[in-house]
Amino acid sequence: MTDVFTTTIVVATIASGIRLATPFLLAALGEAIGQRSGVLNLGVDGVMLLGAFAAYFVVLDTENVWLGVVAGITIGICMGVLYAVITVFLHAEQGVSGIGIYLFGLGMSDLLFQKLVGTPLPIDQFSEWSVPYLSDVPVIGVMLFQHSPMVYIAFLLVPVVAFILNRTTFGLNVRAVGESPESADSLGVSVRRVRFCTIIAGNALAGLAGAALAIELGIFQQNLTNAMGFIAIALVYFGAWRAPGVMAGALVFGMVGAIVLQAKTLGLIPRSASDIAAMAPAIITILALVVVANRFRQPAALTKPYFRGD
Amino acid sequence: MFKKSLVSFFAAALCSAASMSASAEALKVAIVAPSASNDLAFTQSIVDGVNALKEEFEIEMAITDGTFIVDDAAAAIRDYAKQGFDVVLAHGSQYGGSLKEIAPDFPDTAFAWGTSADTFGLPNVSAYEAMSNEGGYVMGVMAGKMTKSGVIGVVGPIEVGDAKLYVDGFVEGAKAANGDATVNVNYIGSFGDVALAAEAGRSHIANGADVMTGTAQMVVGAIGAARSKDVAWFGTQANQTKLGKKVVVASQVYKWEVILRDIFNDAKNGVLGGKLHKVDLANGGLTIEFNDKYSLDAGARKAGEEAMAAIMDGSLKLSH
Amino acid sequence: MPRSLIVILIPVFSVAAALLLGAIMLLMLGANPISGFATMLSAAFGSLDGFSATLIKSIPLMLVGVGICIAFRANVINIGGEGQMVLGGLFSTMAALALPGLPPLLLVPVVLLAGIVGGALWGAIPGALKAYFNVSEILSTIMLNIVAVQLMNFLLRGPLIDPGEIERGTRIPQTARLPENSDLPMLVDRLNFHSGILIALAAAICAWVLLWRTGLGFRLRSVGLNPDAARYAGIPVKRSIVIAMMLSGAMSGLAGAILVFGSESHRMVTDGSTMGFTGSAGFNGIVVALFGALHPLWTIPSSILFGGMLIGANSLQRVAQVPSALIIALNGLIVIFVVSTEWHRKRLQAESKVVNEDVVDK
């Protein structure tokens, strides 16, 4: 009896860590793509909030979660176009314009929510998808294969993004543009076009991350993301701009969070120390990076606007 | 709507200029509050409270909401006092320290702050408090009677103030009704992290909880978890039935109008403060609103109603 | 039209364009945009009360911004201002609670120094992690912000809580009123206009002197411009990175201390978030510094402008009952518009300089 009970708890905790990691993973993958091409986007959290609101609003209206997902991605693309125009064509300083996007998203999502919805009403949530056969495998099945579709999408995107960046011409161009836009340009790669694409892809993922969050939670409220986007940016640095590394970071952060929650629920952590325990995901993420000793350096052209030699 | 409030503001400004000598007809009430005025929780409860009195009093209301920065709230409180508002409600326990410094500068303005129990010995400050442990106890009793698994989950923000009071009352009630029940309390460490609150709810469910409650604005996440897993939920601060029509059993609702009536009447009669006010079950300032759509076990409801009666007639004393 | 005039007009026009968008949003909300903006402007700069509020609001922005200048000049990106402010607030609060008996002349410098130490410590950690363990400061500062808020909540609801809160059972997570001897001296008592502004101005000037008039400043800037070259020149790059982060954190820590001791309530209180304490100054300070072209002296007007914007926004909400969310969105738009035109302004400025030099040459 106690054995089963313990296994159940361990399985539930790991499943919970995977769920907690999902929005971070989606947003961080998007940010990693952009940074690989040399564009820092500090506005992820704002785009997530707008994507979350768009998804929430559409699902509230249509009761169709997939239309909500589409809405989140669409808003992400729109914000991507805006950010691309600002940073690629107008050569704006990336750090500040990202903060501008963040503030805009933070305020606008709240304003739209207040004006169009008012009081928080629940929306349809994702139903869980059990992967045929795999979900029946004892232990592993519940842990990995009984999740909302967004979880699978997020984790399947990891090999997809890795493949695109490492094995395709486009990926090669992205990395070239991020390392040395001048030489990429001299080889006939359009720096603008590549960065335009990566920014839009990155923001689409941020919008998707927001949509996934709002639909998973079934609710929207002011500042729903609670600065998740910034943690996602941190995780890009954890993962050294590589999709598997970013996934590792998201999982460390999510897992430690889940373990702490579970320990609190079980009363293993005294209430007087609940705040101290809540520090654990942040501290362990830092320590993990210290131990792993990251040898990668950032894309050489990161945050540097490119001016074609004129 | 905003046009209207703009007009009413200018009207208020004109009135305040004109009515310095003559006794003003309308009572000018300002609210300064930390979250959004339609949050289905703490801030909305005070706005609803003032609105509920519009029949009895002629009231002009101004709201500054979303003021989580304490010094911004202090500036707003000062500004409303300067503008000649009759009653300024500092609706956030974190505002008290500032109010203590501001109130002496405006001896003719009535200030009230909550939730708290300290008037600083100032004649123009009243304090108001919700005995949220009472409703918590009643709902805890029902939860204790309802649970089949014997596990009850509680999601809290940080163990402070009103949240602690409510959770302590709920746990006390659950334990009293069902000594064998396990009540797991999870303070997640944040008032804003909805996703973490949702996972805290799920971790309760994974541990076998079939009844849950929670408090503060991030708790909507935990209600979502309850909704998706069909676990019973008890709400507080506002009627949360809207957030889960199938799972919300009952909510403890704050009816601030009960004490605002006294504060407004006092203000009209020139008594500007110095009093402690409490909303509780006995004075009707706290009510338990049931969700008609939820088929609550009759025995559990009866136990809850008995506990409520015992608290109201004073035969049951809570540990707080 | 002369080029130099265009150079000045570009930022003005970009702000105007953002405000125009804001005006459309105000109209859609049913508020009068003209009276709205007039309200903002007069609240922030139109009266002595307003201007004093603006200056007070600009203090943390200025200090954090100056710290950002130092870090960014050494090519260290400090996103940890929020956490460093919190640590500054906590350290200074603990100092005041520990030494209530000191006379004001001693206690005020002591608490400010404690704030500086707290912030510097919280800055030194990511600095050392970057220098010696190759951990990106962007990662560590964001994570340490999370740690700081939990530390604040732990201390304010536990060891540092006002004993009265436990007695009354209300358990509001705040300290007792800090000793009056630790209040920042007032410049104008009626306006609550305290001497924090002088400290912030002095800090900005010191930072300028440090960066451009001292050997340490030269080393920091060399590391920022080209770490490899600096290393060859014999500059201790790692130590310089730690020092840059410490100085940056010290400025934010000082900002946190001034927030506590210059606040209306003269105590530290938490609503559970960093924003509730800092007002996001640790974050907005980055925008302020970049607007000030990462120059400590230009950060002064930049922070006053932003402080005015925040004060005006609060007043707009009170007067026209416009949701504060609109103001946040509008601030974002202003940042986007100004930063988008900045490069073109600089290019035109550079061109007009070239033209002028040509004229001189001839």
Explained architecture:
The complex is a heterotrimer of chains A (310), B (320) and C (362). Helices cover 72% and strands 1% of the residues of chain A. Chain A contains 13 helices and 2 strands; from the N terminus they run H-H-H-H-E-H-E-H-H-H-H-H-H-H-H. Chain B has 10 helices and 12 strands. Chain B is 41% helix and 21% strand. Chain B folds into 2 domains: 2-130, Response regulator (Rossmann fold), CATH 3.40.50.2300; 132-253 and 286-312, Response regulator (Rossmann fold), CATH 3.40.50.2300. Chain B is globular. In chain B, helix 4 (96-102) links the parallel strand 3 (87-91) and strand 4 (110-114). Chain C has 2 domains: 1-31 and 322-362; 58-319, no CATH class. Helix content of chain C is 77%, strand content 1%. In chain C, a hairpin with a 4-residue loop joins strand 1 and strand 2 (193-194). Chains in contact: A-B, A-C, B-C. At the A-C interface, helix 4, helix 10, helix 12 and helix 13 of A face helix 6, helix 13 and helix 15 of C.
Topology, pairings included?
The complex is a heterotrimer of chains A (310), B (320) and C (362).
Chain A: H1 2-36, H2 44-62, H3 65-89, H4 94-116, E1 129-130, H5 140-144, E2 146-147, H6 149-167, H7 169-179, H8 181-186, H9 191-217, H10 228-238, H11 243-265, H12 274-278, H13 280-292
Antiparallel strand pairs in A: 1-2
Helix pairs in contact in A: 1-6, 1-9, 1-10, 1-11, 2-3, 2-4, 2-9, 2-10, 3-4, 3-9, 6-7, 7-9, 10-11, 11-13
Chain B: H1 2-18, E1 27-32, H2 42-52, E2 59-64, H3 70-82, E3 87-91, H4 96-102, E4 110-114, E5 125-130, H5 132-146, E6 151-156, H6 161-177, E7 182-187, H7 194-206, E8 211-214, H8 220-229, E9 232-237, E10 248-254, H9 257-268, E11 276-279, E12 286-290, H10 298-312
Parallel strand pairs in B: 1-2, 1-3, 3-4, 4-5, 5-11, 6-7, 6-8, 8-9, 9-10
Antiparallel strand pairs in B: 10-12
Helix pairs in contact in B: 5-6, 5-10, 7-8
Chain C: H1 3-28, H2 33-45, H3 48-73, H4 81-98, H5 104-133, H6 137-157, H7 163-168, E1 186-188, E2 193-194, H8 196-213, H9 215-225, H10 227-232, H11 237-261, H12 274-278, H13 281-291, H14 296-320, H15 324-361
Antiparallel strand pairs in C: 1-2
Helix pairs in contact in C: 1-2, 1-15, 2-3, 2-14, 3-8, 3-11, 3-13, 3-14, 4-5, 4-6, 4-11, 4-13, 5-6, 5-11, 8-9, 8-14, 9-11, 13-14
